[in-house]
Amino acid sequence: ANPSGVQGICPDGWHLPSDAEWKQLEMYLGMSETDVNSTGWRGTVEGGKLKEAGTTHWADPNAGANNESGFTALPGGYRFSNGDFNYIRNYGNWWSSTGYDADDAWNRYLLCNNSNVDRGYNSKSMGFSVRCLRD
């Protein structure tokens, strides 16, 4: 099923995950319901469970990274609205399909120096990574 109803750039049979689907993943990894529903840096080790282990792609120290989930999050950084790319090797940023308002959408951040997950919203003009989920 595709609960978000947004295929986006994903191939047929796949879709962009909603904010609710990201929350479901975070709770599966052990984040509390209170943390899941808050914004900013949340949880304790859930980000580490998502990140590729080691420093081949992530900058040192890649705190807590063990890829226990199999997600293999990579630090693609992001593109600013003006077209500049920044923070490759330091940040991994992923969109959800859920809008926050007309101009912004919910997203997730992972960072090389902690094992938490940031939930926030940013301008849709920013360039973040996406992960597709099978319907």
Core attributes:
alpha+beta, 4-stranded antiparallel beta sheet, single chain
What does this structure look like?
This protein has 135 residues and is α+β, with helices and mostly antiparallel strands. It is built from 3 helices and 8 strands. The strands form 3 sheets. Strands 2-7-6-5 form a 4-stranded antiparallel beta sheet. The chain is globular, with a radius of gyration of 14 Å. The relative contact order is 0.24. The model has no long low-confidence stretch (mean pLDDT 96).
Oligomeric grouping of the chains: single chain
Number of strands: 8
Categorize the overall geometry: globular
Give the helix/strand class.
alpha+beta
Lateral arrangement of strands in the main beta sheet? 2-7-6-5
The H-and-E topology, N to C, reads as EHHEHEEEEEE
Q: How much helix is in the residues?
A: 10-25%
How many strands, what sense, and barrel or not for the largest sheet?
A: 4 strands, antiparallel
Count of DSSP-assigned helices: 3
Backbone CA Rg: 14 Å
Rounded mean pLDDT is 96
Ranges where pLDDT stays below 50 over 5 or more residues in a row are: none
**Beta-strand content bin:** 25-35%
Tell me the span between the first and last alpha carbons: 5 Å
